[in-house]
């Protein structure tokens, strides 16, 4: 019997009831006996289970729903190797501030040390890459442990959490207090710091905003727009912040970043770290305002002029309400617009270029013609994905998924699964290097078997391009950088229950993409691209 206040059942049932209370609506998993009770609980109550061929895909899928839907994503992994295979996914979620919960099975506690199958203490392995990690000691502690893990995961700065349930805890019956809906604390910023930031931005001559993933994660997209409009500041974006301002907005910029960062006198970085993607926060003479969603996110390697910390919506709304004197920055905005338009014209030429072999730019030129405004695009690869970042222009926030600063290859199929489940009716398109394909393409089987169609455009240059070109530049030769040329990744996916085709001529790209989006199954457009083409970058190490 289960009352609204008390809940009875085996450990899997107690856990699932608590997870539901926190808004978890599906699990991603790969089978293992240690976690059967969670499947039993799900099966009996119609809770969706999606299964994969490698645990990393389960965690990446959980991360995708967490990133896109801004609620917890759940991966259930079996004891030992199931959990260790999920660690790159957990680490990516840690770097990305994604509220992912991994529940692991665990060898029985009562005979710990006797050599049970897959007996290993997961906590020391996952502790450095989670916000919360614990072993649940008894059935009645399960709801409280789920609440603690998910509250930690959902509290800014967000991030992953881990729980493992020893065999006897997950299989035994118990009763426990049922959970109410979560109460996630919001941090109020220091008003003086916010006022100082507003004043700096308003009185700057050439300010720039760079908005990152936490702006989307914190539900602060509308507040960002209001702040930018109120203070007349051009906006660039990275990660999930891309598309925060629609591309046609007069303050939305993407391609004039270098002009902006070298010319600005105040650079406002919001909801993203001052890491390698942003010159480690050192922009020459410009003053930096770093707005973060928690004090832990303040940089320790540079000292910004001011760094307000707290709920981003509150901070950005306060900036929008600033009542002091402000510059209109019109000249600066006009200058950036000129640079932006010139860069756009160059890009348009590259995206239309008729070359043989095909250059990646053309792939994106053709893709842009068929992508809907709300399409979800996912990057998993090296140079091919750098080009995606350059040429694709997300029009809505929360539609672009890249691996983030951890830069882990292999997110593709897991992210695609999470995106397809989030948006059953939208286009979902993975841009995948041929090297990256090796990490997760087997999970095209999981997508095909579970009726989850996605389009996979493989940039097939036959090399680990982002490594081969830099190695040649550095040493004059390269090793361990070649792949089989012209490999038929489309045939691989056909064999796995999907479909696809290989494209060698630019003129064939458009029709192939149209077929792919109509296919209704996982579909590979395997594009043979020019191996000589290298993405131009200032630092070639990745
Ligand atoms: C898990 C993992 N292993 C290795 C790397 C190093 N790495 C970064 S980019 C890259 C090459 C990717 O090649 P491919 O996916 O074919 O894309 P291309 O650069 O050829 O377009 C490698 C090996 C990484 N980022 N992640
Ligand atoms: Mg490649």
Automatic annotation (TrEMBL):
Residues 11-123 form the Thiamine pyrophosphate enzyme N-terminal TPP-binding domain. Its cofactor is thiamine diphosphate. One of its GO terms (molecular function) is acetolactate synthase activity. Residues 194-319 form the Thiamine pyrophosphate enzyme central domain. It comes from the Bacteria. GO terms for cellular component: acetolactate synthase complex. The keyword rRNA processing does not apply. Residues 380-527 form the Thiamine pyrophosphate enzyme TPP-binding domain. Keywords: Thiamine pyrophosphate. GO terms for biological process: isoleucine biosynthetic process; L-valine biosynthetic process. Belongs to the TPP enzyme family. NCBIfam families: PRK05858.1 (NF004516). This is Acetolactate synthase. It comes from Phytohabitans flavus.
């Amino acid at each position: 019997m289960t009352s609204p206040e008390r809940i009875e059942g085996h450990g899997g049932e107690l856990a699932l009831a608590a997870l539901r209370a926190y808004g978890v609506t599906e699990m991603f998993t790969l089978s293992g006996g240690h976690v059967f009770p969670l499947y039993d609980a799900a099966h009996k109550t119609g809770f969706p289970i999606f299964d994969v061929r490698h645990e990393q895909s389960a965690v990446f899928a959980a991360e995708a729903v967490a990133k896109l839907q801004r609620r917890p994503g759940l991966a259930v992994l079996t004891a030992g190797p199931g959990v260790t295979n999920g660690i790159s996914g957990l680490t990516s979620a840690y770097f990305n501030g994604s509220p992912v919960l991994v529940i692991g099975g665990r060898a029985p506690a009562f005979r710990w040390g006797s050599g049970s199958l897959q007996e290993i203490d997961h906590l020391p392995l996952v502790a450095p890459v989670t916000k919360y990690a614990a072993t649940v000691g008894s059935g009645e502690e399960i709801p409280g442990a789920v609440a603690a893990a998910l509250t930690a995961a959902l509290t800014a700065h967000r991030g992953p959490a881990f729980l493992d349930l020893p065999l006897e805890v997950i299989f035994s019956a118990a009763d426990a207090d049922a959970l109410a809906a979560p109460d996630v604390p919001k941090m109020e910023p220091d008003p003086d710091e916010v006022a100082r930031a507003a004043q700096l931005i308003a009185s700057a001559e050439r300010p720039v905003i760079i908005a990152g993933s936490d702006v989307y994660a914190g539900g602060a997209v509308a507040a960002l727009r209001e702040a930018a409009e109120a203070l007349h500041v051009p906006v660039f974006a990275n990660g999930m912040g891309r598309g925060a301002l629609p591309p046609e907005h007069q303050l939305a910029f993407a391609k004039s970043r270098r002009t902006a960062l070298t010319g600005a006198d105040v650079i406002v970085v919001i909801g993203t770290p001052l890491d390698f993607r942003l010159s480690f926060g050192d922009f020459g003479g410009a003053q930096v305002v770093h707005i973060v969603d928690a004090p832990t996110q303040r940089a320790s390697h540079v000292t910004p002029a001011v760094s307000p910390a707290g709920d981003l919506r509150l901070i950005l709304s306060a900036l929008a309400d600033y009542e002091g004197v402000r510059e209109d920055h019109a000249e600066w905005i006009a200058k950036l617009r000129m640079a932006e338009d010139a860069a756009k014209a160059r890009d348009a030429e590259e995206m239309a270029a008729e070359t043989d072999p095909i250059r990646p730019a053309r792939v994106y030129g053709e893709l842009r013609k068929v992508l809907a405004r709300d399409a979800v695009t996912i990057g998993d690869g090296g140079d091919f994905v750098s080009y995606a970042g350059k040429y694709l222009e997300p029009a809505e926030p929360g539609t672009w998924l890249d691996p983030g600063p951890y830069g882990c290859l292999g997110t593709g199929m897991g992210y695609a699964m999470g995106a397809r489940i989030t948006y059953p009716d939208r286009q979902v398109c993975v841009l995948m290097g041929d090297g990256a394909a090796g990490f997760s393409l087997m999970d095209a089987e999981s997508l095909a078997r579970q009726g989850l169609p996605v389009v996979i455009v493989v940039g097939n240059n036959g090399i680990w391009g982002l490594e081969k070109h830099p190695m040649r530049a550095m040493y004059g030769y390269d090793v361990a950088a070649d792949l089989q040329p012209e490999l038929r990744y489309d045939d691989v996916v056909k064999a796995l229950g999907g479909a696809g085709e290989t494209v060698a001529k630019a003129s064939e790209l458009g029709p192939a993409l149209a077929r792919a989006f109509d296919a209704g199954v996982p579909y590979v457009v395997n594009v043979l691209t020019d191996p000589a083409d290298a993405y131009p970058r200032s630092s070639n190490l990745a």
